[in-house]
Amino acid sequence: PRVVFSGIQPTGVPHLGNYVGALRQWVNLQHEEKPSTKLIYSIVDLHAITVPQKPEVLKQRKREVLAALLAIGLDPERCTIFYQSSVPAHSELMWILACTASVGYLSRMTQWKSKLSLDSSSTLDEGPVGSRLKLGLFSYPVLQAADILAHRATHVPVGHDQQQHLEFARECVTNFNHAYGNHLVPPSTITSPAQRIMSLTDPTSKMSKSHKAQRSRILITDTPEEIRSKIGSALTDSTPGVSYDPATRPGFSNLLEIYSVFDAEKRSPVQLAQVYANSSPKVLKEAVSDALIAGLHGIRDRYLDLSANESFLEMIEKEGARKAQESAQETMEIVKSAVGL
Ligand code: ATP
Ligand code: MG
């Protein structure tokens, strides 16, 4: 049986990168997959606390992300939508996987380095790195592997930045199965066809929820005015004309990528660059804004309605926790018995 699993951190309202790289696909899978495919989507609050969070803010953001997921069209009847911490099996399986996971492999992963603003060549051996790096952030990929494996997921739709972690999840399966027999299922990645969406203020790094600069990202709940203003002030370059070249013109290339994703005529970034070759940045930015505003239309209003309906959100939370606990139970029984617990 096919099982789809994916997650999003409650570190803020989802942005354009999350939407294009992952969430849009979550919605589409509801129609593309057969009704027998289980669709399991988690708001991964245990992952969020790998970097400092204010408790009250975290609580608020979990609700915001839940409302946002419903606003983009996830159907709680069709999917299981739940908070990671409401299913203890995730933490429990993480520990068991950690006992056969290698520190050397984890130390080569890039996410902990980028979250600490370290260079990708940094190593654990550097003294100051070891004391700043918390064990939770370092072992993040083990928890992510547990999320996926607890539900026996066969397919995991994620953005490009998560491919490395999926690779590691397969490594966890190999290690566990080697030690205890063939009990865990290796997952396949479903990567989004769209490129990574880059930051509007620094187009050489990815758009991110936890980046300080508000103007670096478009939230899927932004008003048309906010979208126009953020796109209008996006960093480009001073070379005349518009062309698509991510290496030398990252700002323009990112705008063209975004435009292409939402273009009604489905033109590629390269085709759009030809159309706007002799246009001013302002003209291109207006066109990108128009396409984006049309593409995100309706999400904001549904989000505001849902956010105001606390009792409905509470009901969705309870039902999601129940379904997810049930889904993880089978694996936990198999795993614990295999390990001799
Ligand atoms: P944080 O900065 O807190 O890590 P984030 O923006 O990276 O937040 P996540 O919750 O870590 O968001 O990731 C949710 C999903 O969105 C993942 O599948 C990830 O691959 C995808 N994603 C995140 N940022 C981008 C981006 N800029 N472009 C495309 N996909 C992205
Ligand atoms: Mg992230």
From TrEMBL:
Alphabetized UniProt keyword annotations: Aminoacyl-tRNA synthetase, ATP-binding, Ligase, Nucleotide-binding, Protein biosynthesis
GO molecular function, one term: ATP binding
PROSITE patterns in alphabetical order: AA_TRNA_LIGASE_I
SUPFAM superfamilies per the UniProt record, alphabetical: Nucleotidylyl transferase (SSF52374)
The keyword Ligase belongs to this UniProt entry's keyword annotation: yes
Gene Ontology annotations of biological process type: mitochondrial tryptophanyl-tRNA aminoacylation
Protein's recorded name: Tryptophan--tRNA ligase, mitochondrial
Entry's EC annotation: 6.1.1.2
Lineage: Eukaryota, Fungi, Dikarya, Ascomycota, Pezizomycotina
Similarity comment text for this entry: Belongs to the class-I aminoacyl-tRNA synthetase family.
